[in-house]
Amino acid sequence: MGTGRDQSDSLSMRLARRSARAMHRLGGGIGTAVPVSVGDLVAGDLLALAETSADGIEWLVLETTDGPATSRDSAVRTVRVVAADSAPFVGVDDLDLDEVLDGALGALVVRCGVTLSLDAAIFDAAVRSARLDADTLQRVVTRVHAVAAAPTHAAERDEAELEHLEAVVAARDRLDHSARAAVGA
Q1: How far is the C-alpha of 171 from the C-alpha of 160, rounded, in Å?
Q2: How many CB atoms lie within 10 A of CB 68?
Q3: Whole-angstrom distance, CA of residue 62 vs CA of residue 83
Q4: Contacts of 20 (CB under 8 A, 6+ apart)
Q5: pTM over 0.70, yes/no
Q6: By the 8 A CB rule, do 159 and 70 touch?
Q7: Who contacts 149 (Cβ-Cβ below 8 Å, separation ≥6)?
Q8: Please, are residues 163 and 103 in contact by the beta-carbon 8 Å criterion?
Q9: Which of 88, 89, 64 is nearest to 75 (CA)?
Q10: Given this model, what pLDDT does residue 70 score?
């Protein structure tokens, strides 16, 4: 089961604090937030997008791949990301980077079961709030692969984790829908 940092909080209070911490990080309070161009994206970038930043959810780049050329003679670049946020709750599939990074980025939890592959063009409006080092990124990638290989069943999660996971998945789905609409899929 997950472990709540403060399980007496209501979900709305936790979400409000999470959003405030993410906005603090993006506003320059922790790390340095900079606009990013698609060509500059690399694995380990922690990105904020307008579609999900109000929820306090950022996206950690796991990998970028160049696909085949399209009819416009340009390769389609795909970016695989995983959700990350500052929620005061760590679920069974999650990786708490606050402990790994000794608080260097403030509270940051990677939701290793919530991944998405998108056309890189969606990240033209992104802001990079941090870049993880190679060792930390490898820990995340290893955990993402482990979660994908052995999915956790709902019965193994407590109610608070299920509520939070539902909010993160909803944000992922909004981003996916927005990205598909942008490329006309």
Answers
A1: 17
A2: 6
A3: 10
A4: 56
A5: yes
A6: no
A7: none
A8: no
A9: 64
A10: 55
Cα gap 99→109, rounded to integer Å: 10
130-158, pLDDT tens digit by residue? Answer: 889 999 999 999 999 999 998 787 778 88
Helix or strand (DSSP H, E) at 114 = strand 109-119
Closest by Cα among 70, 71, 78 to 116 = 78
What amino acid occupies position 170?
A
Of 77, 48, 74, the C-alpha closest to 60 is 48
**What tokens does 88 get?**
């005061």
CA 24 – CA 174 distance, rounded (Å):
23
Residue 38's region, left for phi above 0, alpha for psi from -120 to 50, else beta, is alpha
Q: What amino acid is encoded at 133 in this protein?
A: D
Dist. CA 91–CA 152, nearest whole Å? 10
> What is the pLDDT confidence band of residue 1, given thresholds at 50, 70 and 90?
very low
Give the DSSP per-residue string, 61-130: EEEEEEEEE-TTS-EEEEEEEEEEE--SEE-TTEEEHHHHTTTTTSS-EEEEEEEEEEEGGGGGG-EEEE
Taking residue 183's Cβ as centre, other Cβ atoms within 10 Å add up to 11
Single-letter amino acid, residue 171: A
